[in-house]
Structures are given as structure tokens and as C-alpha cells.
Model the fold of this input.
Amino acid sequence: MARILFLCLGNICRSPTAEAVLRHMADAAGLDLTVDSCGTGNWHAGEPPDRRAIAAAAQRGYDLTALRARQLAAEDFSRFDLILAMDRSNLRGAEERRPARATAELLLFGSLLDAERPGAKSMDVPDPWYSGDFDGALDLIEDGCRALIRRLSQPAQ
Ligand code: 4NP
Done:
């Protein structure tokens, strides 16, 4: 069973969306995954996702309403097998906080898109909190999660 943690800045837009999308896809695929999300920042700790993120996700059948924001903690680096950062800035933030004894693998979420989108070059998922482009973020998140499900469904080499 794999334990996956999504990481963004506020944990109210991109990473909770990815959490709900991956959980939904894992259920559909019959994969037993532990899925969670958090932010490098703590400004929104305890809050539900942004209402625009909730609305855009609901349009595609994902329910974000029960999720609450929390900040990345040192224990996350041993509680999870894989931490996926939604952009390079948060990947750097996680690298800086990574304890010496960390066991989790740390990856840019966009690296999952390379197989899906030729020329994607491990892109960042742009922050919709500023741009308002929640559908664009959802497109990238669905593609990346689909690639992750495929990777996790393959028998171990
Ligand atoms: P997220 O978006 O990292 O995708 O959750 C943001 C949400 C809030 C803020 C920044 C990004 N903020 O600065 O409060």
C-alpha cells in the first residue's frame, strides 16, 4: 500500500484538489492508497478549500468539502512514501525542511505529466489562487493522477 502526500503553498487549492482526484481514481481502480495533502504555509490551517476550488472540482464529480488545510510537518517525511510538490517553489520548501532521517521520496508533481504530455518538461501546476484558472489546474491534476495510478498499478519490477 502506497502512502501519497500532495504539497502546495496554502493547501486550499491545488493539493486538496489532487488529494480528492487521486482518492477518486484509486477507488475506481481498486487501489489501496493512503492519500493526504498539506501546504508549506500555515495561513489557512484548519480552513476548508477555497470555494472556487470546491466548485470547479464538484463540476467534475470530486468532493472537497470535508478537507481541512494543514501545514507540512517533519513527521510527514516518514509517514508517507511519496511527497508530490505542485510547483518548484514548494519542492524547494520541502527540500529545506526535509529531516536527515527522511524516508519519503520527494518529487515534482509535474514530472508525472512528462509521460502524458510530450514536451511538458516537468511543469509546475500554476497557482489558481492568483489566476482563477481552476479548470486548467484540474486538467493538469487529472492527467498527473492518471499517470500516477498507472505507475502504481504496474507490478513491482
Ligand atoms: P494553493 O493556493 O497553494 O494551491 O493552495 C494558494 C492559496 C493561498 C495562498 C497562496 C496560494 N495564500 O497566499 O494565501
Residues 8-14, 39, 43, 127, 129 surround 4-nitrophenyl phosphate (CB under 6 Å). The domain at 2-153 is CATH 3.40.50.2300 (Rossmann fold).
